[in-house]
Amino acid sequence: MQAQLCFKLNNMNDSLFSLSLAQIVNSNHQAASIFEKYHLDFCCKGKRSLEQACTEQQLSVSKVKEDLENIFTKDNNSTVDFEKMNLTQLVDYIVQTHHAYVKNEMPQIYAYLHKVSSKHGERHPELYKIFQTFSAVKEEMEGHMKKEELILFPRIKELQKLTNNENANLQLNITYLQSPITVMEQEHDHAGNLLNDIRILSNIYAPPQDACTTYRLCYAALNAFELDLHQHVHLENNILFPKAIEAFRDLKPTILN
């Protein structure tokens, strides 16, 4: 399926319109930069077709397609192929890359926002709401990552071990994976909505003319944080979780009543 997608996209096939945003990004991860440019949600709403997503945003489908074609005609040998990673490799990549980034950045952004809102909040009252909203993001993400690292990800890694064992007989119900995955996806949606609120409140991270250096740095950090979260959620919602469910079903486990 992956090779087929790449063939279609590289040959500018009209079927690009009907592919989902997630499928396009899975085929070439540099496409994410195009979707970010047009504010097309390829992670939480990645199941929408390109045509549907553009229509909802009142965007020119042909313009977005043109930008995507420029990406797909380039030589992308250095692009990481997440589709070829096994479950353990994907989990480790997410933890070492995205979880590490979030854990490092959140305290710094929180400190920036506290300082900036205290100093500039009277002239720019939206800063108070941005600080409050990011505080909620920080609290939720800390709990979210802990649940992933202590519950869901160990289950997925254990599943990888079982797939390597031809004699495995998994005495578990599909809810063993599906229940925590459903919770994680719901939390992804909520975190994404909160960051979208921040983007709107900050005028798409555009600091006012009287913004100090910390103010500008804070908005730049928030912008980068949201972009990373989109990649982070995409890897989980559209690659890791479906792979894990498929691997679980392939084991033909004994379903417990």
Give a description of the structure.
By secondary structure, this protein is mainly α. The chain folds into two domains: 2-72, SP0561-like (Orthogonal Bundle); 82-250, no CATH class. The protein has nine helices and no strands. The protein has helices at 2-10, 21-27, 31-37, 50-57, 61-72, 87-120, 126-163, 175-201, 213-250. The longest helix has 38 residues, at 126-163. It is globular and about 60 Å long. Mean pLDDT is 85; it is low at 1-13.
Structural class, by secondary structure, is mainly alpha
User: Strand fraction band?
Assistant: under 5%
The overall pLDDT, averaged over residues, is: 85
Order of helices and strands: HHHHHHHHH
Tally of separate helices: 9
End-to-end Cα distance, whole Å, is: 35 Å
Walk me through the topology:
Blueprint (H helix, E strand, L loop, with lengths): L1 H9 L10 H7 L3 H7 L12 H8 L3 H12 L14 H34 L5 H38 L11 H27 L11 H38 L7
What is this entry, summarized?
The protein is mainly alpha-helical and 257 residues long. The protein is built from 9 helices and no strands. Helix 6 (87-120) packs antiparallel against helix 9 (213-250), helix 7 (126-163) runs parallel beside helix 9 and helix 8 packs antiparallel against helix 9 (213-250).
